[in-house]
Amino acid sequence: MYRSVLVPIDISEADLTRQLIPQVQIHAKTAKVHFLSVIPSVPFYASLGLAYSGELPDKNGLQTKASQKLDEIVKQFDIPEGRIEKHVVYGPPKDQILKLADAVSADLVIIASHRPGISTYLLGSTAAAVVRHAHCPVLVVR
Ligand code: ADP
Questions:
Q1: Using DSSP, how many helices (H) and how many strands (E) does the chain show?
Q2: What is the DSSP letter of 40?
Q3: Measured from the CB, is residue 4 less than 6 Å from ligand 1?
Q4: Of the spans 23-27, 62-66, 113-117, which averages the highest pLDDT?
Q5: Which residue numbers delimit the UspA domain (predicted)?
Q6: Count of CB atoms within 10 A of residue 40's CB?
Q7: 127, 113 contact by CB (below 8 A)
Q8: What is the predicted pLDDT for the residue at 120?
Q9: pLDDT tens figures, 52-83
Q10: ipTM of this predicted structure
């Protein structure tokens, strides 16, 4: 039985979530389930204060929006509240996924292979990096 399962969620991809739901339900029957949404860092040119940076939403605004979206997504999973933990962080998605996997002592990561429609055989770059570097089993959902 797994005790700590990490499920990274790309909040912009509803179809990916649909793929993940049955797998999470099967494998996380008694486990604590950590849902993670990573907000990629604001592009460096914006952080330098160059053109268009004024139009970017502020960090707190982004974080609130991402949290709300993640809440909606997590509601689609049939998991008791007490076994759910939600995380929203900034940074490079693959680094943050690997970092949280260690921090919560994940014994399983469940990740979708790539965006639907991108390719039927390739592994997306985030998924590939997690498979390569994680310290625990990784279930890649296709
Ligand atoms: P693609 O390159 O086709 O977008 P990815 O490897 O980036 O494929 O995405 C596959 C999976 O990686 C997603 O379904 C999700 O589980 C995870 N992932 C990607 N980006 C993020 C993100 N920003 N936050 C959390 N998880 C992510």
A1: 5, 5
A2: P
A3: no
A4: 23-27
A5: 1-142
A6: 10
A7: yes
A8: 66
A9: 555 556 777 888 999 999 999 999 999 999 99
A10: 0.96
- Whether ligand 1 lies within 6 angstroms of the CB of 10 is answered as yes
Which amino acid, 85?
E
126 lines ligand 1 (CB under 6 A): yes
Reference 12, options 40, 32, 31, 33; nearest CA is 40
> How many angstroms separate the alpha carbon of residue 8 from the centre of ligand 1?
7
Residue 117's region, left for phi above 0, alpha for psi from -120 to 50, else beta, is left
> Strand ranges (DSSP E) for 22-123?
32-39, 84-90, 108-112
Q: What single-letter DSSP state applies at residue 42?
A: P
Closest C-alpha to 11, from 20, 1, 23: 20
Instruction: Provide mean pLDDT across the span 91-117.
Output: 94
